[in-house]
Every structure is written in structure tokens, then in C-alpha cells.
Amino acid sequence: MLETQRPLVEKLIVEANRLTRVAAQATGSTTPAAVWRTLSILASDGSYRIGDLAKASRVTQPTITKLVQNLAEDELIYRIADVADSRAWLIAITEKGTNALAAWRIELGKALEPMFAELSADETDILERAVTILESLTNPARKGA
Q1: CA distances for 25 relative to 58, 64, 109, angstroms
Q2: What angle do CA 140, 141, 145 make, to 5 degrees?
Q3: Whole-prediction pTM value?
């Protein structure tokens, strides 16, 4: 990364986190962010072992263990036997989990509609292009490239 790009990347991270926080607060939901983050990781990246999921979700192993237990009770995730290691389990998102995540994202979008209502066509185009760029940079398939 060019050093001249670092401030831009830092600003993108800060504002993306702020946008998510503002949207979540606007919904009034009390569901912990770790729930949505974990479901999002599973939806975009596929199944994970519990330790790897903890790292990806940025929580401790005891925290992810409890979170996975709660998500399983709510039928939002399920455990799959790991064929590479019979002692281990993989965690995957269920259809119900996928639907809950999609509904949450719609709720976030609706909560922020007023904030974006006054954007010009040019501003909307800029944001759409930025999203496309970010999607291409963060796509899990790109990691091996």
C-alpha cells in the first residue's frame, strides 16, 4: 500500500464502522454486533472451525463458543463434522441464519434511508463505484491471488 493511500484507508474504516454503528443504533436492536458479524462471516466465507471463527469475528474462543451455542439454539447456524479432523467441527450458517442476516441488512438500510435521501445522482454514483471497488478488494476469492 502506498503511504499516501493509508490515510484514505483509515478514514474508510472509521466511517464504515461509524455508519454501521449509527444504523444499528437507529434500529433500536439490542442484538450484539458480534452476532451479525459472525453470521456475515459465515455467509460470505463459508464454514469455519470454532477457533478460526473466533479470530475472524475478533472475539475470544470462550465468547465464540457461547455465541455459537446461542446461534445454534436459535437455528441460525449448525455444526458439521470436519472430515479432515474427526475431533473437530465446522460451523456453518443455516438458511434461517441467512434470512435473518438479510432481514437485518434491510433493516439497517431502511434506518439510514433518510441520511442518504438527499444525495445527488453524482454522489450516488460515486458511492456505488466505491462499493464495487471495496467488494473486489475484500472478496475472499481474491485472497489467493
Answers
A1: 21, 23, 12
A2: 110
A3: 0.82
Domain contains 79? yes
* CATH number where 76 lies: 1.10.10.10
Chain mean position to CA 136 = 15
| pLDDT, one tens digit for every residue, the chain (145 residues) | 567 888 888 999 999 999 989 999 999 999 999 999 999 999 999 999 999 999 999 999 999 999 999 999 999 999 998 888 878 889 999 999 999 999 999 999 999 999 999 999 999 999 999 999 998 988 766 554 4
Full residue range of the structural domain in which residue 45 is found: 31-112
